[in-house]
Amino acid sequence: MEFSWPIEKVKEVLGESNNVDCSKPISPGSLSSKLQALVEELNIPEAKIGLASGVEAFLWLYTCIQGFKPATVIFASELPIGSGLGSSAAYCVALSGALLALSSSVKVDVSQQGWQGFEDDELTLLNNWAFEGEKIIHGRPSGIDNTVSTYGNMIKFKSGNLTRITSSLPLRMLITNTKVGRNTKALVAGVSERAKRHHDVMTSVFSAVDSISNELSEIIQSPAPNDLAVTEFEEKVGELMEMNQGLLQCMGVSHASIETVLRTTLKYKLTSKLTGAGGGGCVLTLLPTLLSANVVDKVIAELESCGFQCLIAGIGGKGVQVCFNISS
Ligand SMILES: Nc1ncnc2c1ncn2[C@@H]1O[C@H](COP(=O)(O)OP(=O)(O)OP(=O)(O)O)[C@@H](O)[C@H]1O
Ligand SMILES: C[C@@](O)(CCO)CC(=O)[O-]
Ligand SMILES: [Mg+2]
């Protein structure tokens, strides 16, 4: 999609507060309705209306970080949108990274060829801006998705406290996209409502999820297992995933399509859990190291025959990087 706004119009609506300080991430607050009005004027077709919040986040990040400079911005993304793979966070992190890279707050070298990373304090700033964008898209995000997109690899995250961790063993997952659309904001709100209705039960569910996360982080950081112990290591991870899925079901965020993936992979003795906000979207299936390629092919064929889409991914990757000359 292509949109444009005359700079004068943006200034008029968002106010010519030209003392933009990109070193201090802030929320739109009372400007929120004005941002929405700027996007409503675009008459985005109903089928793509989900993008409206992404466009609002763009306008906010752009005007806060770059002020009212005229520019053309092209955004391309390969992630499926609204499928539980954190496309909203990846979008906000990429935008914040690109906008900050062109600001005075960040010391990247625009003349350097190839991909460059950011310094630690720059990553903190970038992550905080991306979180502001996520808030516009999600309502009340925890910040986990933008933090993972910013830093890469694995993150242990609790109420804003993050610990960067690395797995002693590479983990491989099959990602199945059920292609059932869902809305993260609505799903997260649904969990809050259930927590209000059943306070004690949901407190126990959340506490069990917390214990699963703690146990998982201990397992994956323990010294690299030898060949014999790899299966044991993977079985522990699989069992924790299975319990986590059960608890997510308790929270009301599973879906018939997710249950179909669980049943199908279980036929091949493989464990799966939903990812992202649930309600459809993507499901992760642990692919043990010793699993034969033949079984992987069979499970993929069966899942794809249900109309799902599969891809294999390694867990952990690089965080945000910037490149000024894409052909290099
Ligand atoms: N490439 C993009 N261009 C514009 N907006 C985008 C883009 N990618 C994501 N978004 C915004 O993010 C929204 C989808 O975010 P949402 O949080 O609902 O799903 P997700 O991030 O893919 O999954 P989850 O949050 O469960 O991991 C889109 O509706 C749009 O507003
Ligand atoms: C479902 C959720 O945990 C992640 C969405 O990818 C929501 C959040 O943490 O903000
Ligand atoms: Mg999201």
Automatic annotation (TrEMBL):
EC category name: transferase
Positions of the GHMP kinase C-terminal domain: 235-296
Pfam families documented for this protein: GHMP_kinases_C, GHMP_kinases_N
UniProt keyword Flavoprotein present: no
EC number annotated for this UniProt entry: 2.7.1.36
Catalysed transformations (reactions): (R)-mevalonate + ATP = (R)-5-phosphomevalonate + ADP + H(+)
Domain GHMP kinase N-terminal, chain residue ranges per copy: 67-152
Gene Ontology MF, one: mevalonate kinase activity
Pathway(s) this gene product operates in, as recorded in its UniProt entry: Isoprenoid biosynthesis; isopentenyl diphosphate biosynthesis via mevalonate pathway; isopentenyl diphosphate from (R)-mevalonate: step 1/3
Subcellular location: Cytoplasm
UniProt keyword Cytoplasm, yes or no: yes
SUPFAM superfamilies in alphabetical order: GHMP Kinase, C-terminal domain (SSF55060), Ribosomal protein S5 domain 2-like (SSF54211)
Cross-referenced Gene3D superfamilies: 3.30.230.10, GHMP kinase, C-terminal domain
Main location: cytoplasm
InterPro entries given in the database record: GHMP_kinase_C_dom (IPR013750), GHMP_kinase_C_sf (IPR036554), GHMP_kinase_N_dom (IPR006204), GHMP_knse_ATP-bd_CS (IPR006203), Mev_gal_kin (IPR006205), Ribosomal_Su5_D2-typ_SF (IPR020568), Ribsml_uS5_D2-typ_fold_subgr (IPR014721)
GO (cellular component) term, any one: cytosol
Keywords from the named record: ATP-binding, Cytoplasm, Kinase, Lipid biosynthesis, Lipid metabolism, Magnesium, Metal-binding, Nucleotide-binding, Steroid biosynthesis, Steroid metabolism, Sterol biosynthesis, Sterol metabolism, Transferase
A biological process term (GO) from this entry: isopentenyl diphosphate biosynthetic process, mevalonate pathway
UniProt xrefs under PANTHER family: MEVALONATE KINASE
Family listed: Belongs to the GHMP kinase family. Mevalonate kinase subfamily.
This protein's name: Mevalonate kinase
Species of provenance: Punica granatum (Pomegranate)
Phylogenetic classification of the source organism: Eukaryota, Viridiplantae, Streptophyta, Embryophyta, Tracheophyta
